[in-house]
Write a structure and sequence with these properties.
By secondary structure, the protein is α+β, with helices and mostly antiparallel strands. The protein has eleven helices and five strands. The protein has a five-stranded antiparallel sheet with strand order 1-4-2-3-5, with helices on one face. The radius of gyration is 20 Å and the shape is globular.
């Protein structure tokens, strides 16, 4: 379903496009956001994240690519720009190479990735975006057209970042396949042997590949995924810490709390308190 003038709950939507200045709290607070890839496009604005080059001119066009399930705190209050959110289902049937590139630019193993656009890149993306936005807001919009224009927009983003990519090799494809398997099984299966077996390689070889490509072992990535889901649930659900521990397959709350603190340096309760304070103090923040 593609909404136009009247926005239904996000759980019933596949794509959501709005100007950042007109992004309602109902979107920001909707728990359905967890299922969406988000593109936050700042126009003639300063960067939202700390830059390594302190003297670098930060004002310009920035695109933040935020993968699903991530707990992110990018304060866009009062910023000029656009928001495009879409579910993976919007791209059902696309080839593996395209999805691999998409996962790479969205940095699925991290919180988000960021692109600084040149003037020519911004102009090229603007032309595509205007067509996409117009079709999206047209009454009775055409799903096939919106999907096609979204893919063109994403392909352009991939092209912008292509210099950071290496030629696709078998190891990169195995990383992609591992991440897909992890997404479907992380709550029930937490041993590297299972994932290695599905990929037809040894656990030792899988860890070598993951360490080379992502600088983490299979177990570290499994733990990262569990923590990301735990953080999302703590912030966006009404579940208690004990209920969240149960949902994630932990035998008891104390075990979950020890695991959470070992991975993050703070207890689930401390994280929950910190998140609530952040939301209350920074109105209209993407959290």
């Amino acid at each position: 379903m593609i909404p136009s003038a009247t926005q239904p709950p996000l759980e019933k939507s596949l794509v959501y496009i709005r100007n950042l200045g007109d992004c309602p709290p109902s979107y920001l607070n909707d728990p359905g956001r967890k299922d969406f890839f988000e593109i936050v496009w700042l126009k003639n604005e300063a960067a939202l994240h700390a830059l390594k080059e302190p003297d670098f001119e930060t004002r310009g066009d920035w695109i933040y690519l935020i993968p699903p399930y991530r707990v992110h705190q990018l304060n866009k209050a009062g910023k000029n720009g656009e928001l495009i959110s879409f579910k993976r289902a919007m791209l059902e049937g696309e080839d593996k190479e395209f999805m691999l590139d998409l996962f790479k630019i969205f940095n699925v193993q991290g919180e988000f990735s960021c692109l600084r656009l040149s003037e020519s890149e911004s102009l090229a993306l603007t032309g595509i975006y205007e067509l996409l936005e117009k079709e999206y807001h047209t009454e009775g919009n055409n799903y096939i057209m919106v999907k096609a224009l979204l893919k063109v927009f994403l392909l352009k983003l991939i092209q912008v970042k292509e210099q950071q990519f290496t030629i696709h090799d078998i190891h990169q494809k195995r990383v992609y396949e591992f991440l897909m398997l992890l997404e479907s099984n992380y709550q029930e299966i937490r041993n590297t042997d299972f994932y290695a077996g599905k990929l037809g390689i040894s656990s030792k070889r899988l860890n070598q590949i993951l360490k080379e490509k992502l600088d983490k072992t299979g177990m570290q990535l499994i733990h990262d995924r569990l923590i990301l889901e735990a953080k999302r649930s703590i912030i966006h659900s009404e579940s208690t810490i004990k209920e969240i521990a149960d949902e994630l397959g932990f035998s008891d709350r104390p075990y979950f709390s020890r695991f959470f603190k070992k991975q993050t340096g703070q207890t689930p309760e401390a994280f929950q308190k910190e998140a609530k304070e952040h939301i209350q103090s920074k109105f209209n923040t993407l959290v």
